[in-house]
Amino acid sequence: MARDQTTVALYTITFFLYTAHSNLAPFFPDRAMKKGLSQTEVGAIFSASPIGSFLLSFVFGKQMMKIGRKRLMTLGICMEATAVFTFGFIDFLEDKQLYFIISYCSRLLMGIGLTGFGTASYAFAAAHYPEQLMEKIAMIELYAGLGLMAGPIFGAGVYSIGGYVSVFISLGSLFFGLVPYLWKYIPEDKPYIKPEVQVSYFSLLKIRRVFLSFLVPTFTIAGIASIEPTLQPHLLKYGLSNEVAAACFIIGTVSYSMVMPVVNKFPAHWDRRIIICIGVFLAAICQFFMGPTPGLMPSKLWITILGLFIQGYGCAIALIPVMPEMLKVAAPHFPQAKDDLSDRISGMLSAGFALGNLFGPWIGGYFADIYGFPWGATLIGVITAVFLVVLLTIGGGFCAFRTCVKRNVADDHYVEAPDTLNTSLKTEDGGIEFSEQFKKSTYASISTEASETA
Fold this sequence. Notes:
The structure is a single chain. By secondary structure, the protein is mostly helical. The chain has helices at 2-22, 28-34, 39-67, 69-89, 96-128, 133-162, 164-185, 201-205, 208-225, 231-236, 242-247, 249-257, 260-265, 272-290, 301-319, 322-330, 338-371, 373-393, 397-406, 436-444, 446-453. The longest helix is centred in the last third of the chain and has 34 residues, at 338-371. The chain is globular. The chain starts with a helix and ends with a helix.
């Protein structure tokens, strides 16, 4: 029961943090432009969040052993609450430049708070639920997606009832109330084991499979973020109203949140690289539907809607196995640094998300201006497809597929595809497992795997 309350607390706080992060969209741009800000300045305010996330992700991952996971979660909530309260009171400012500066800094702090809590929650899940890590990450992403979906609805509803300030007063008060809730149900950190060899981000990024896994959230999230400034004008060409066009953004979030049952249906003996490649493939192919690509498909609304649905599904499938894959591949290089390794990789994962959110809107807007939305989306699909080819070749995806097909899994014994990029794989003991069944089957196959990689 205690562990259930712990996960409920983790998911609940994640939901409300992402609700606050997305609640600005329905009303803040119009409010800011009435203060004299341009669309470019409003866009800069929104882009401050991923900048703050990226800049601090690596720092939080490195310093988490000193700060503590539970304290970092608390710090993230408090920073989010402070930023939310600040957003509420900037409406009383009349000076345009001061309004812009404080709005930008508040959004920057909001991103830092979100990545602080997110980085700590990933590391917490790795430390407390090593055998259920992929399931826990899937649930964290589920509640993050639900929060992103609920944010605009909450923001628009409270704004229409109580006005601008009430949106931020209610959320800020809620966050400060969540701090004692977190301290009651999130257990203290397990004692850290001081590593004999210091883990560095450079040493992790030198491992090719870790580096490529780090790029997975960057490419997939960039695909999602690329349509933020361009999709609504494209949908209006189909004759939709502004309200209906804005509601279409929820489609990807809904399918993103629905992916948990799909992840659980993948066979336990499948190499994680297979699952990641399937997700990246869907993230690439959806862009051709969203255009739709001229000459390949007719320009129909339902095809664009289908592309949005596929995008959410594909991105979630690609993202959920990334952290377990990075931990498993990196573990043999740092066998005595389990805690430090999970903290660093949590920071890298948050940084990958932030990079995608930072560059996605810029790339999407640039391609749409130069080539139009259909060809712009197609180009993003081509770029993602090129990255998929890299994963299949340099990342060992083809090898993983081939091994999975060749193996006779009738006796539930699975041997992982040999890693052509990392000879130390022959000494791996399974790392972070999908399940007990996967753990047993991996241990049973160590001797066979060693002979193959020799």
